[in-house]
Amino acid sequence: MPIKIPDDLPAASTLESENVFVMTEKRAVSQDIRPLDILIMNLMPTKVETETQILRLLSNSPLQVNISLLQAATHESKNISQEYLDRFYTRFDDVKDRKFDGMIITGAPVENLSFEDVDYWEELCEIMEWTKDHVVSTLFICWGAQAGLYYLYDIPKHPLKSKLSGIFPVKVMTQGERLFSGFDDVYSMPHSRYTEVRAEDIAKNPHLHIIASSPEAGVSVVISEAGQVFVTGHMEYDRGTLAYEYERDLKKGISPNVPENYFPDDDPRNDPVMRWRGHATLFMTNWLNYYVYQVTPYDISQFGSEKK
User: Fold this and answer.
1) Dihedral angle of Cα 263, 286, 288, 140, to the nearest 10 degrees
2) From CA 38, how far away is CA 35, in angstroms rounded?
3) How far is it, in rounded angstroms, from Cα 308 to Cα 288?
4) Active-site residue among 51, 134, 142, 196?
5) CB-based burial of residue 23 (10 Å sphere; 0-12 exposed, 13-18 middle, 19+ buried)?
6) pLDDT below 50 — which residues of the chain?
7) pLDDT 10s digits, 219-258
8) What is the predicted pLDDT for the residue at 6?
9) Cα distance between residue 306 and residue 229, in whole Å
10) Angle subtended by helix axes 277-286 and 47-58, to nearest 10
């Protein structure tokens, strides 16, 4: 949340240049506050774990956030009961007439399929199209980011030689970008994927900007001029998520590489060290504040009306 200071306090300009959230007295008295409505399309097979991870990050903001969970109606889940989905999740037909302050579209373990071969691709495309004038800001994660960049901006994905898995240093590329307010110049982020988007493809589109990248993991965070955010990694992962995926792949006979920079001494018998939670929490708080709360209209029904 912002600090409220006198309009003409000399420190104001310095703090603003450092991306400290400052609100002048004049603006503060005109503030109208209401809860934010966030829609989460959870495409991960580990539904409960992913819900917990994302909600944990969202919960650290002082803003009140109302959550709705969205399922892909055209996909039959093999990892959780339909009874659970019917109880806690809604379908697109039930929310398509509503407006949302923010939306999160998660990753999904379908990277080795072409987008068009994913059984719920047409439904997802309809939802991504709908977000343009029904959601103030959409945050896309991992495969969700690749899907969003492909559908919305025609950015292709490319297969990697082997699965990218581990904790990688990410460098902030754009000074002054408020998503990274309070960040160090380099931070850590989990990645777990078989495909990538490439900087040279993104650079061809003037409406997209790479704001964070990693020497090992490549493009990490992209923003659009429309207020969309694409994160190619998994900031939301828990301490043990990559270990779970590694053990799962071992049992499947995939012979995965040990996740990089994850287990001490690269020994899976050692407990992983958590070193990304602080930046993950700050990133989500910054997204809620600067990309959602600060730009959403008080009457959310008015969003998108100027585009008609």
Assistant:
1) -50
2) 10
3) 26
4) 142
5) middle
6) 1-3, 5, 29, 308
7) 999 999 999 999 999 999 999 999 999 999 999 998 899 9
8) 57
9) 22
10) 70
Q: How far apart are CA 236 and CA 220, in angstroms?
A: 14
CB 208 within 8 A of CB 201: no
- Catalytic (active site) residue 225: no
125 included as an active-site residue: no
CA distance 145 to 143: 5
Look at residue 136 in the predicted model and tell me its pLDDT.
97
Which tokens is 22 given? Answer: 């400052």
| DSSP codes, 148-195 | HHHHHH-PPPEEEEEEEEEEEEEEE-STT-GGGTT--SEEEEEEEEEE
236 catalytically annotated: yes
Counts of helices then strands in the chain (DSSP H, E):
10, 12
The pLDDT, as a whole number, for residue 23 is 52
Q: Which is the catalytic residue, given 196, 234, 245, 279?
A: 234
Options 51, 111, 196, 236, the catalytic residue: 236
Which token pair is 107?
């990753």
